[in-house]
């Protein structure tokens, strides 16, 4: 667990081979992601996944004191405020499995995700949402239909 063998791009442009062994870091990574899956919403996770490679690149290249690294740090510190909880991991034949997770600030609401009438989610709400989400696609399809004498 935690051994990586890769070819990486160095800052100066050459390729180099790196072999890293971080078993503790790998366990922390999986545990953290498990708790984040409960405590961060979808869009924050997407944004984190977009910004994390840039942050890692800045640190890897030695730009610790760069203003853009500090700005990203402020973002990650803010996001981290909600991430608190416990994850149980199982290690088996070199793999890490999340077998449990809980968080006091969990966004997962069991009663909300059930599609019964008591769950607080009305499937009828989806109809308007789907129509609005599809609007741009309908407009595009109409625009691509051949029309004679189409004027502005």
UniProtKB/TrEMBL annotation:
One family name in Pfam for this protein: Arginosuc_syn_C
The protein's UniProt keywords, in alphabetical order, are: Amino-acid biosynthesis, Arginine biosynthesis, ATP-binding, Ligase, Nucleotide-binding
E.C. number(s) listed in UniProt: 6.3.4.5
**Highest taxon in the source lineage:** Bacteria
Q: Could you state a single Gene Ontology molecular function term?
A: argininosuccinate synthase activity
Positions of the Arginosuccinate synthase C-terminal domain: 1-139
InterPro entries listed in its UniProt record: Arginosuc_syn_C, Arginosuc_synth, AS_cat/multimer_dom_body
Q: Does the keyword ATP-binding apply?
A: yes
Q: Would the keyword RNA-binding be found if you checked this record's keyword annotation?
A: no
What is its quaternary makeup? Homotetramer.
- Return the protein name: argininosuccinate synthase
Organism this protein belongs to: Thermus tengchongensis
């Amino acid at each position: 667990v935690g051994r990586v063998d890769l070819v990486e791009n160095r800052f100066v442009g050459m390729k180099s081979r790196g072999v890293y062994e971080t078993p503790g870091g790998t366990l922390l990574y999986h545990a953290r992601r498990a708790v984040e899956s409960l405590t961060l919403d979808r869009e924050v996770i997407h944004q984190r996944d977009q910004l994390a490679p840039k942050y890692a690149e800045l640190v890897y290249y030695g730009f610790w004191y760069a203003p853009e690294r500090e700005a990203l740090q402020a973002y990650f510190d803010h996001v981290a405020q909600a991430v608190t909880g416990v994850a149980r991991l199982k290690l088996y034949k070199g793999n890490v499995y999340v077998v449990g997770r809980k968080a006091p600030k969990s966004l997962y609401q069991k009663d909300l995700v059930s599609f019964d009438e008591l769950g607080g989610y009305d499937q009828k709400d989806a109809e308007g949402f789907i129509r609005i989400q599809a609007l741009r696609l309908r407009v595009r399809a109409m625009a691509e239909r051949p029309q004679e004498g189409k004027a502005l």
